[in-house]
Amino acid sequence: MQRNAYKKRMKHYDDVLTGRRWWSHIYMKYLWRTDDNAIAREVLAMIPDDFRGKVLDVPVGTAVFTAEKYRRMTDAEIVGLDYSQEMLAIAGERAAQMQLRNLRLEQGDVGKLPYPDESFDCVLSMNGFHVFPDKPKAFAETFRVLKAGGLFCGCFYITGQRPCADRFVRHVLDRKGLFVPPHLTRTEAEDLLCAFYGDNVAVRNEHSILIFKARKP
């Protein structure tokens, strides 16, 4: 269901996230009260442009927010993983157009990552956890593949912060398979992060979007 939902709406996916059309701007501003572009800049600023090491981006999506960042990260080796072949196809086209030689795209499931323990120096997950069916498993797997001292950062939808957004998620996005319940509250999300990363966790929320940064002990 989730794969079919994304396939049908792929044409408008980037427009919605970036708010670059008048209707998507209204959607982001008045329903969510957030600016996804500003949130993306904040998250991506957590990773320096001169980062040296291996990065896992899951889900990579269409790379609409990350492609320009990755072009500047010339010393990094980046693996972009997504469950959706349609997302990967668009990301691949974008990577080719921008000549991103440091980005490798792979299809896979965050609940069963196809990598050995401690494979990555950084794991990035933007707008992912609200679509992952088994959220605790996704936290466990991203933790498993991250090296000790590695950076885990990203953002995702949390419930309980903005009633009108929660209603829209429940009655539209969940039903269409674009989001996957159950969704975490801020407290639940922070507790999960702390269970894995201890005190090395920083979180804040922009209304219904949680922004997080953690270091693996």
Automatic annotation (TrEMBL):
Coiled coil: none annotated. CDD domains: AdoMet_MTases. GO terms for molecular function: methyltransferase activity. It comes from the Bacteria. It holds the Pfam family Methyltransf_25. The keyword Transferase applies. Residues 55-150 form the Methyltransferase domain. The keyword Zinc-finger does not apply. Keywords: Methyltransferase, Transferase. GO terms for biological process: methylation. PANTHER family: METHYLTRANSFERASE. This is Methyltransferase domain protein.
